[in-house]
Amino acid sequence: MNDTEIIEKAKALLGDAILEASNPALRRIFLTVDPKDLVRTVEVLKKELGFAYVATISGLDSGENFEIIYHFGKPSSQLNLRTRVPKSNPHIESICAVIPGAILYERELQDMFGLVVDLIPDSRRLVLPDDWPAGNYPLRKDWKYERPVEKIPGGKS
Amino acid sequence: MLEKVVRWSRKKSPWILHLNSGACNACDIEVVAALTPRFDVERLGVLLKATPRHADVIISTGPVTRQIKDRIIRIYEQTPDPKFVIAVGACAMSGCVYRGAYNIMGGLDQVIPVNIYVPGCPARPDAILDGVVKLLGTL
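Above: the input entities. Below: the C-alpha cells describing the complete assembly.
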C-alpha cells in the first residue's frame, strides 16, 4: 500500500473526521483530526491500516493551542496524527484503550505540558522530580525558570 | 604515634565509592576503566566499595539533578568521617552543558563540599588517578 492509497483508505473509513491530510515526502503522511475523533482514528489506524506502533507522542505549544502529534510507524511508512486542543481547556482522551504502551508518553505530556489526559489508567508523575512544585510545566512557552543563585566555594577570585 | 599510624593507614587504603549523580555515563566508564589492571590502582590501596558506609572517598560524576539532591546528601552523611569528595568531569565541576536546566542544581559543590576537582569531558583514567593521588598528598 503506498502513501496515496493509505490516505484514500483512511478518508474512506473515517470520512469527515479527517480535517487535513497531506503527503509532504515519500513514506511520510500527516493527518489532522479533531480531539473528539482521536480514539476512533487511532483504532482505525491500528486495525485497518496496520499502524500499531506509536514511536512517541510529542507536544507543541503554539501560543493559544497545544498541538499533540502522535508518531505512528510501520516498516513501509510513517504517519503523524495531529490534533489541537485549546490551552484554556487542555483535555485530551487517552489512547491507552487501543495502544496500552502509550501510557508513558501520555504521563510525560501531563508532566511537561499540563495537559489533562482523560481516562488514563495511571496518572502518576513520570519524569519530573518528587519535590517539583505543582502547576509548573517546563515545556510551556510562557513558563519562566529562575535558576538558584550559585554558591562559589571559597568565593570569587 | 597513634596519629601517625592512623594517617598512614588512611593514605594507604582510600576505599572509594563510585556515585553517579546524573551523568551521561561517559565519566562512569572512565572511572571503571581507571579501576582496571592496566592502571592498577590497587597498588595505591584503592578499592571500589559498594556502600558509602565502607568508603572513605566519594568519586562523583555528573551534574546534580533535583531528584538526586537529597539522596546525595544522605549518602554523604552515611559515609564515616574523615570523608573526601572528588568531582570527576566538567559536569560535576560546574554543571557543564546541563547548567541552567530546570531540573539541574549545578555542580556537585552546590550540594556537598568537594575536595578535588578533576576536569575533562570525560576525564581520562590517568586524570582521575592523578586526582586521587593529589588528594592523598594533602593528607
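Note for the figure: Chain A has one domain: 3-118.
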